[in-house]
Amino acid sequence: MKSESEALFVKQLKENQNIIHKICRLYTTDEDSHNDLFQEITIQLWKAFPNFRGDSKFTTWAYRVGLNTAITLYRKKKRTIDTIEFNSTFHKVTQDDYNFEEEEKLKLLYSAISELNDIEKALVFLYLEDKDYTEISETLGISEVNARVKMNRVKGKLKKILNP
Amino acid sequence: MDELDLLKKDWKKQEGSFQQISEKEIYGMLHKGSSSIVKWIVIISILELVLWASISFFTADEEYFKTLKMYHLDTVMPIISVINYGVILFFIYLFFKNYRTINTTDTVKQLMQSILKTRKTVKYYVWYNLAMTAFSFILVFIFQFMYDPNIRKMVEKMSQNVDPNTFYCIMLVVYAVIIAIFVGLIWLFYRLLYGILMRRLEKNYNELKKIDF
């Protein structure tokens, strides 16, 4: 039996699934864990859906539940973490604008990000998603000033890796 | 171009590279069980609430009341039991009250706080029960010595060979060691159990606290 709210939820999630894929991309290192986390976020979103009143955007709401699941609720299954696999299989390159130097830099950046802790990853994620500091602070529950300070530190950390 | 701009550009580009999940697959996921730590904490917590409550409940048989009478504890123990049930009920109420505040649409920090708070309720509940168990043990031991005819006979027999004070000291140490081992084992068990479940959450919570002092 598919209820009306179920159909609405599935439709919205399908349209916005890239948000969740991107969170999985940052917090997991292989395809199995990616799918595993995707499923857990979907379950958590569905559980929280009755409280979603539509006064905020579905995407804003999904960002929050998704990050909460990745950082706090999700239990990583025991797997050997292979960062080489992370770089090679997950980083798909489009052939038309292939640039060797840029590609090397990106590889380094992604591997540096995979070394960050869960909170730093959340900051990087929200930065890459063009979120402003108000939204970042509201998502993480820290002050705007402290979010800014920490973000600058993380950015500095990443730049330093590229230009030692 | 700045490295981070480069990263952002690449990040945006990958939108199309994710294997898209179909509606049918999403429907399938909705009916699968969650494996979140909250689910595990709730399962373990409810088991604990039930376990400790049933220990106090099921040990109260007829034999138990006869023994209480023999030890002259038949007025004190029921009072302690009533208080104990009251405290247990209060903990169960607190647990569900805290559990209901766990909300994935909260901020990351609030969510972590409400999970930690719920977990703490159970932690105090377990400590309360351990303390209560130790207290009952001690009470029963003391009154056993005073009123149990079998123990008294044994004590008298032993006292013929050993100085009574030394004997009491040895018994006291033996009892203390038994209680300490019992409490220690349970403590170790909980450390392991929650250590595995909560390690990541606690690490991330401390990280957030470091940023937002």
Explain what the structure shows:
The complex is a heterodimer of chains A (164) and B (213). Chain A is an all-alpha fold and 164 residues long. Chain A has helices at residues 4-15, 17-27, 31-48, 58-73, 83-90, 100-115, 118-128, 133-140, 144-162. Chain A has two domains: 1-81, Orthogonal Bundle (Rna Polymerase Sigma Factor, Chain: A), CATH 1.10.1740.10; 116-164. The model of chain A is unreliable at 80-90 (pLDDT under 50). Chain B is built from eight helices and no strands. In chain B, 83% of the residues lie in helices and 0% in strands. The longest helix of chain B has 48 residues, at 164-211. In chain B, helix 3 (37-58) packs antiparallel against helix 5, helix 5 runs antiparallel to helix 6 and helix 6 packs across helix 7 (149-161). Chain B has one domain. At the A-B interface, helix 1, helix 2, helix 3, helix 4 and helix 6 of A face helix 1, helix 2, helix 3, helix 6 and helix 8 of B.
Largest interface: A-B, 63 and 49 residues
**Shape annotation of chain A:** globular
Number of separate strands of chain A? 0
Distance between the termini of chain B: 35 Å
Portion of residues in helices of chain B? over 70%
Order of helices and strands of chain A: HHHHHHHHH
The tally of helices of chain A reads: 9
Order of helices and strands of chain B: HHHHHHHH
Counted up, domains of chain A total 2
Structural shape of chain B:
elongated
Biggest β-sheet of chain B: count, sense, barrel?
none
Q: How would you classify the helix and strand content of chain A by structural class?
A: mainly alpha
Low-confidence stretches of chain A: 80-90
N→C terminal distance of chain A? 58 Å
What is the second-level CATH architecture of the largest domain in chain A? Orthogonal Bundle
Question: How big is the Rg of chain B?
Answer: 27 Å
